[in-house]
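Recap from last week: sequence in, structure out.
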Amino acid sequence: MTLSATERLARLRLARTDGIGPITFKRLLERFSTAERALEALPDMSKRGGRTKPLQPFSKSMAEDELAKLSARKATLIVWGDDGYPEQLAAIEDAPMVLSVLGDASLLKKAGIAIVGSRNASLQGRRFAETVASDLGRANLTVISGLARGIDTAAHSASLATGTIAVTAGGIDVIYPAENKSLYESIELKGCIVAENAFGTQPMAQHFPRRNRIISGLSQGVVIVEATAKSGSLITATMAADQGREVFAVPGHPFDPRAGGPNSLIRDGATLVSGASDILDALTRRRDMRVVREVANTQTSFPMAEPDEQILNEARQIVSDLLSGTPIGIDDIIRESGISAPLIQIVLLELELAGRLTRHPQNRVSLSFSDGGMDRSSGFL
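Predicted structure tokens:
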């Protein structure tokens, strides 16, 4: 679809509103069809969910300021629903609501492979990453990584000529680590830099796992080159597997702690990689076996008719009785309650906008017991 400038701005505002994550964002669009209508509904929905001080949307002026800063930096904004939104990424459950992009955005539409690994990489590990990245580039695959020291840096550097995407944990304008300033500038000129966070955001620990799910989400598979058993690269591998991507690992000597991650992945079923040909062969087999499906990003949603308030109140009470601090599948709530899925989603949205619901992987939810300005006299516990 082609979004109007007004709707694109509204989607940016919705994405930047406190408490609105990717899944809630999409549920609101399904519910109201446009972000403009969703923004209008937020205060009332959060109040019905038990919030004493209604949730206020991110201001229009602040969203316009972010767009102005991106424009001055010669960066663009891609929002969920844009023609330029990468289909591969759109297929994951928690795909980003908005992406800031510097450089060649067309690379986001190409098939890609992620290469990640240890920041404290060995010389052999870096050389191997460079060789594989170069070979994959010549095979017309974009190389995706996280601009970190070590393996990420080697992979980006070796694929500059053929196409590389760097996904950053902070804002699009924040270079991290600072020592990669020259590489960042080279990727801006020859490749593509992507960020989910707002302009000027400094990277924090909690940002890196979210960045990692974009790295794996943009790719057809993830290659792990040197990673300790508790490395963030293994989080990326886990996310890749959960997203239905291929997981590749380069084996290492058992005495090297940096081999612990890849060796354990191979033991658990990851494809052993001794060169780019192993990756290309696996991708060929995968394409032969898999039918590419249409993603939700290309579908048109229609607003649901407003249900009767008495029916909603009854649904709220039933859902409240079923929820606890232990995550439960939304499908289980629907089956157990006998309430229609659209009505369940409305109730869950109200709770989440009130700060009383936490979403978990695999379509599960639980009650959040932090106060957050809740009205204890409301119909919800």
